[in-house]
Specification:
It comes from Paenibacillus endophyticus. InterPro entries: Cu_amine_oxidase-like_N (IPR012854), Mao_N_sf (IPR036582). This is Copper amine oxidase-like N-terminal domain-containing protein. Keywords: Signal. With 187 residues, the chain is of the alpha+beta class. The chain has two domains: 52 residues; 112 residues, Immunoglobulin-like (Sandwich), CATH 2.60.40.3880. Helix content is 17%, strand content 50%. Strands 8, 9, 10, 13 and 14 form a five-stranded antiparallel β-sheet that branches. β6 and β7 form a beta hairpin.
Length: 187
C-alpha cells in the first residue's frame, strides 16, 4: 500500500514537472531595456512573438495610455511636447551647486490626439523629492497649445540631475502622465 502511494506521488510529480517544463519552453521571459534602464517587468516570447507590458513601455516613452474596458482596447498617444527654460528672457540650463534663482518653464504641445483637462509642471531634486511649479486646468479642443508657468524661485542645494517634468491629465482620469522631461545639472 505504501509503495503504491509513493508510485502515484512520483507519477504526479513527473507529470507536473513535465508540464511546467513545457510551459516554460512555450513562453520565454525577455529582459526589456529602454534607454539603458532595465525595466522591472520583462516581456515574454510566445509563438515567435514578443509581448511587452504596454503601460511600462508607454511610461518610458512618455506617452499616454487610454484604456477602454468596455471594448478591451488600449490606445497609445504620444504628443510632441517641447519645453524651454528661461531666466530673464534668456535660455536657462545648468547651474552651480547652491545656486538660487528664478526661472520660467515654457512648453509647446502639438500632435495631441486626446482630450486633456489639466497640466502640471514639477521639478524633482536628485533624491526624487517633487516641488510642483504650477498646476492649471486647460480647456482646449485643439491638437496644439502653448503653456508658460509663472516665474519660480528655486535653490539647487545638491549636486546632481534635477528633472523638470511636464504632466497631462486626461479627461475622465485622476492620474497624471509625464509627457516630457528636461534635465538641469547642478555641478
Amino acid at each position: 500500500m505504501k509503495l503504491r502511494k509513493v508510485g502515484i506521488l512520483l507519477l504526479l510529480l513527473s507529470v507536473w514537472g513535465g508540464t511546467m517544463m513545457f510551459a516554460d519552453s512555450a513562453s520565454q521571459k525577455v529582459r526589456v531595456i529602454i534607454n539603458g534602464t532595465e525595466q522591472d517587468d520583462g516581456g515574454l516570447i510566445a509563438e515567435n512573438k514578443t509581448y511587452l507590458p504596454l503601460r511600462q513601455l508607454a511610461n518610458s516613452m512618455q506617452a499616454i495610455v487610454e484604456w477602454d474596458n468596455q471594448s478591451k482596447r488600449a490606445t497609445v498617444y504620444k504628443p510632441n511636447v517641447h519645453m524651454f527654460l528661461f531666466q530673464n528672457n534668456a535660455v536657462f540650463g545648468n547651474v552651480a551647486k547652491g545656486y538660487q534663482g528664478k526661472f520660467k518653464v515654457f512648453a509647446q504641445i502639438d500632435n495631441l490626439k486626446t482630450d486633456v483637462t489639466a497640466v502640471k509642471v514639477s521639478i524633482f531634486d536628485p533624491n526624487g523629492k517633487e516641488k510642483v511649479i504650477q498646476t492649471e486646468s486647460v480647456n482646449t479642443s485643439k491638437d496644439n497649445f502653448w503653456y508658460a508657468t509663472d516665474e519660480i524661485e528655486y535653490k539647487f542645494e545638491a549636486s546632481g540631475k534635477y528633472p523638470i517634468r511636464f504632466f497631462l491629465k486626461l479627461k475622465g482620469s485622476d492620474e497624471w502622465t509625464v509627457v516630457s522631461e528636461k534635465l538641469i545639472s547642478s555641478l
